[in-house]
Amino acid sequence: MTAWTPRRLLGLTVFLFLLVALWDFSGLDLPFARLFGNADGFALRSNHGFVIAFHEIPRTLSSLIVVALLGGIFKPWSFLKRLDRRERVQLVLSVLGGMLLITLLKKANHTSCPWDVNEFGGRALYVSHWALGVRDLGPGHCFPAGHASSAFGFLAGWFVIRRLGPQVATRWLVTVLAFGLALGLAQQVRGAHYMSHTLWTAWICWTFGLVVDVACKAFISRSEPTDPLHSAHEVQA
Questions:
Q1: What DSSP letter does each residue of the chain carry, written as one string?
Q2: Which CA distances in Å does 229 have to 52, 140, 210, 225?
Q3: How far apart are CA 76 and CA 137, in angstroms?
Q4: 94-151 pLDDT, tens digit each
Q5: CB 183 within 8 A of CB 151
Q6: Domain edges within the chain
Q7: Distance (Å, rounded) from C-alpha 186 to C-alpha 114?
Q8: Quick one: CA dihedral 46, 33, 140, 151, positive or negative?
Q9: Backbone phi, then psi, for 124, in 5-degree steps?
C-alpha cells in the first residue's frame, strides 16, 4: 500500500490512458462488434435470459451495494468498521460520484450504440466518439458505457480500500475489474457498446477516484489546525 505514492499513481493513470487510447485509435471497435452482429442486428440484444442475467441482476446488485455503503457511513459493517467516518464518506463519494459522472458524460455525448449503426440494421453512421461535433444521425448517448460503470464505479473506491492493506485492496481491484469487464463484454455481445466504451469507463472511474483522493487529502491537511507544540515534538523525534 505504501508503495503507491502519488507520483506512481499518476504515472500509472497516464500509462492506462495510453493503453486505452491505443485500443481506441487502433480501429478495432468495429471489427470486434462484427463478431457478434450483422445486418440483421445482434442476436442476444433482446434475449430475455441474457438481459436478466447480465443487465438487470448486476444493476440491481450494484445499487444495493451502494445503498449498503451509504448506510455504512452511519452504521459501519464488516470492513467499513476499519475505516473512520471521513474515509467511509470518501468511499461513497468516490463510487457514487464515478457512476454519476459516467451518466452525465453519456447524456452529453452524441455517439450512438452499435445496434443503431446501419451496418447492424440501424440508421446511424459509424462515427468515432473523438469526432467532436460530428453527428452520426442516430439517437446518441451511448458513450461511455453506463452499464459497465455499475461495476467499474467501485474502482474509484480502491483509493480508500487500499488503506486496509494490500490483500484487501488486491481482492477489491481484481473483483471489480472482473465484473466490469464481464458486464462490458455482455453489452458488447448485445450490441449496446463498443469495447472502447467499456475501457474508457474503467479509466474515467479510476481517474475520478484518484482526483477525489487527492482532493480529500488536501482538504484534510488544510482543515487540521496547526499545533506548534505537536510540530516541535515531531521535529525532536
A1: -TT--HHHHHHHHHHHHHHHHHHHHHT-HHHHHHTTEETTEETTTT-HHHHIIIIIHHHHHHHHHHHHHHHHHHS--GGGGGS-HHHHHHHHHHHHHHHHHHHHHHHH--PPPGGGBGGGTSSBPP--TTSTT---SS-----S-TTTHHHHGGGGGHHHHGGG-HHHHHHHHHHHHHHHHHHHHHHHHHTS--HHHHHHHHHHHHHHHHHHHHHHHHHHHHHSPP-HHHHHHHHH-
A2: 61, 60, 33, 12
A3: 49
A4: 999 999 999 999 999 999 999 999 999 999 999 988 888 889 999 999 999 999 999 9
A5: yes
A6: 11-221
A7: 13
A8: positive
A9: -85, 155
Cell of 150: 455499475
Q: Provide the grid cell at 216.
A: 480529500
Locate 234 and state its grid cell: 515531531
**What are the pLDDT digits (tens) for 25-38?**
999 999 999 999 99
Backbone CA torsion sign across 204, 105, 130, 201:
positive
Cα distance between residue 119 and residue 106, in whole Å: 22
Place of cell 482526483: 211
